[in-house]
Amino acid sequence: MRVAELRGGRRVAVVLEPGEDLFGGIAQVCRDLDVRQAYVPVFLGAFSTAELIGTCGPVPDPDLPMTDVVHLDNTEGSGSGSIAWEEATGRVSVHLHASLGLKSRSATAHAGHLLAARVQYVVELVLEEVVAPGLLRVPHPGARGIPALAFASPPPGTA
Fold first, then answer.
1. Which of 48, 50, 52 is nearest to 119 (CA)?
2. Looking at the whole model, is its pTM more than 0.85?
């Protein structure tokens, strides 16, 4: 377990419009406001298209990370995530998970790591800036190499 007391910065409400890219919109807000790390405690709305890591059928080994991509059209749902600075790319890395219900299937839901999403009507989200400690995303050997948050001091890009 890793624990760090977070020192918060600004709290920002964001409304994304029809046709906007969820990840691109969040990254743009971060660029515009010079936010390098944050949490997204909640986002909610409707998506014309979305892709998440998951499957529509049984998996051969539920202990292994899933690698399949599920493409969904016309969904509504909610999620949350984190934003960390990537030194190698010089930009933020947005990590979101969501539960999305298919409107065409009585809101039958799919949940998982969100890869892409395009706003259908509107998406509202809250972005909570983290001033310290620094948030990094690094491969975690105990989690089969899946990137996980790590804490750095001082925050990346500020030294």
1. 48
2. yes
How many H-runs (helices) and E-runs (strands) does the chain carry?
Answer: 1, 7
Q: How many structural domains comprise the chain?
A: 1
DSSP element (H, E) containing 30: helix 22-33
Whole-angstrom CA distances from 5 to 94, 113, 149 are 21, 25, 14
In a domain, 82, yes or no: yes
- Domain of 19, CATH number, reads 3.30.1330.80
pLDDT tens track for 19-71: 999 999 999 999 999 999 999 999 999 999 999 997 666 777 777 666 778 99
Structural domain includes residue 155? no
- How many angstroms from the chain centroid is the CA of residue 14? 14
Q: Given this model, what pLDDT does residue 155 score?
A: 59
